[in-house]
Amino acid sequence: MLIEDTPDVRTTLIHRADSPGGQWWRSAVIYQVYPRSFADSGGDGIGDLPGITARLGHLSRLGVDAVWLSPFYTSPQHDAGYDVADYRQVDPLFGTLEDADALLARARTLGLRVLVDLVPNHTSDEHAWFRAALPAPAGSPERARYIFRDGRGPDGAEAPNNWRSVFGGPAWTRVADADGTPGQWYLHLFDVHQPDLNWENEEVRAEFEAILRFWLDRGVDGFRVDVAHGLVKDQGFEDWAGHAEMIAGDDAGEEGVGPAPMWDQPGVHDIYRRWHEVLASYDGDRALVAEAWADTDEAMARYIRPDEMHQAFNFDFLCTEWSAPALKDSITEGLAACDSVGAPTTWVLSNHDVVRATSRLGLPATGKGPNGIGADDPQPDAELGARRARAAALLMFALPGSAYIYQGEELGLPEHTALPGDVRQDPAFWRSGYTEKGRDGCRVPLPWEADAPAFGFSPTGASWLPQPTAWAGFALDAQKGVAGSSYELFRKALRLRREFDLGTGSLAWVDGTWGPEQGLLVFTNRQVIVAVNLSDGPIPLPDGLDVILASGELRGELGHQALPADTAVWAVLED
Ligand code: NOJ
User: Fold this and answer.
1) pLDDT at 144
2) How far is the CA of 377 from the centre of ligand 1 (A)?
3) Which part of the chain is the Glycosyl hydrolase family 13 catalytic domain (predicted)?
């Protein structure tokens, strides 16, 4: 029997299935490794490439298709490696190029693909180009690789415009000329140690195409592109009434705030068309994923037109509040926008920049959440957040398209919400004048073994951020083989997702008896029926359902079961 044939049910097909076996990235589950916090083989308390290689078996057992590695390149680490000094070298903190090759080889043996991070909006201020730009005169080719401008006001003492850094504070810093007198200003949309490159300059474009080839030649399967919406700036460099620390989307519709001159400029797309050609010149199997915080789903989808990138994170989904109508709209609109350009939708709930979903969903206001949580801030309801995050994961894995897991999400790890200020390292913490706690709370090293020093993260027990003692209960070895654990839930979800080809599947909303009006999100993907209860109380499940996976315990007798609040199930119709 089909769900469509059951009484009192209305279904609306909004996304058609692809045939399974197409390009891998259309349906892949991709696991984000944040190298400094994954596994430390050397014992200095900072994760490294050999540590990752030694733990890749975990990812293959979990059942993911690919790994994305956050930056491991040479860097003074002012922004945890997103300040790159040499794009073709591994930072000694993380290992060597040979270690990178060994990681790629091990991943290949395990059948895992590997994406690496590309940071094209800015370099480190220790990059050879920026070092050459500082002593060079205004107007020189060395300075033309960055965005140097004369200041305003008497003696050029005021910044060229009012733009602010995403991390807080001004987006311009003044440099001294060779003779020591105050000179021009350079733009940095992020930290002062991250000067923005000038993408109007053909030399910059050519260099990044060469960097792409360098890593493609080493065998990587693609790139996650950092700040993909920021490379091209409006060349007027006019003042702007918005504040650049807001993501582009936050400014939409705000009165008196025109479009952001630094985000999502039409010119960025030419860059990605060229990169598409570079990747296509390999074996047609390499992919680019855009980190593009765009105003609308349509703007996001422009990054994944057939001749541009292959995936773009659907941040609208991540930022949507925990409500059935809101999630239904977000999913419907996200799929429609991606379908309109023939691209897959790329679902994500957590990453190294946002409060972990397990904690975010336990806050009174769900949605994007604050920029970090400190001991003095309102604390999340841990039990509620954990329950919702498990339900959200089952929702995400049942959706057609690709899905990302942030390291530790499979363990149900919460945010560290009580890190003391003196251990925090995110530049957003001090650049915001300590008003924003920043992102360290989601970057705490992983617990692998409940009884080992640093929970097995490092052989010496060192850990660059302290791990909460309660994390013993979250350690991988405390969850393995334990029915109902987060790890086993994720593993089973990924196995069933593969078995039913949900990643290339369809989506039809099921309304009628159940629906968003009742606080219930119900859809079918191929023959699987997915129900998520976002209401305040249990909802009876219709008869005739064979539940194959549940994010929490169901209530009642078999055949008369109820779905508790904040719980999700996958089911098939009984024969
Ligand atoms: C986005 C990255 O995900 C984030 O961690 C970084 O701070 C900024 N881009 C700047 O590179």
Assistant:
1) 98
2) 24
3) 32-443
CA 365 to CA 127: how far, in whole Å? 41
Report yes or no: 520 and 532 within 8 Å, Cβ to Cβ.
Answer: yes
Tokens standing for residue 171: 């987006």
Instruction: Give, in order, the Cα–Cα distances in Å from 380 to each of 141, 326, 386, 439, 440.
Output: 51, 21, 10, 16, 16
The closest alpha carbon to 138, from 130, 127, 149, belongs to: 149
The rounded distance, in Å, linking the Cα atoms of 314 and 296 is: 10
User: In the annotation, is 226 catalytic?
Assistant: yes
CB-CB contact of 75 with 183 (8 Å): no
* CA gap 489, 548 in Å, rounded: 11
The whole-angstrom separation of Cα 343 and Cα 496 is 23
455 lines ligand 1 (CB under 6 A): no
Q: How far is CA 116 from CA 37, 68, 75, 76, 91, in A?
A: 16, 6, 15, 19, 14
Ligand 1 mutation target, pool 119, 227, 315, most atoms within 8 A of CB:
227
Is residue 208 classed exposed, middle or buried when 0-12, 13-18 and 19+ CB atoms within 10 A define those classes? buried
Whether 365 and 396 have beta carbons less than 8 Å apart is answered as no
Domains of the chain from N-terminus onward: 3-11+506-572 (2.60.40), 25-119+313-490 (3.20.20.80), 128-187 (3.90.400.10)
**Beta carbons within 8 Å of 350's beta carbon, 6+ residues apart:** 318, 356, 357, 405, 406, 409, 442
What's the distance, CA 89 to chain centroid?
24
- 218 burial type by CB count under 10 A (0-12 exposed, 13-18 middle, 19+ buried): middle
Instruction: Going from the first residue of the chain to its last (575 residues), give the mean pLDDT of each consecutive group of 10, the final group possibly shorter.
Output: 64 93 95 98 98 98 98 98 98 98 98 98 98 97 98 96 93 93 97 98 98 98 98 96 58 66 96 98 96 94 98 97 96 98 98 98 93 95 98 98 98 97 95 93 98 98 97 98 97 98 97 77 96 94 90 84 96 87
User: Is any atom of ligand 1 closer than 6 Å to the C-beta of 226?
Assistant: yes
pLDDT tens by residue, 488-497:
999 999 999 9
Mutate to test the pocket of ligand 1, among 75, 353, 443 (most ligand atoms within 8 A of CB): 353
Residues sharing a CB contact under 8 Å with residue 391, sequence separation 6 or more, in sequence order: 532, 533, 551, 552, 566, 567, 568
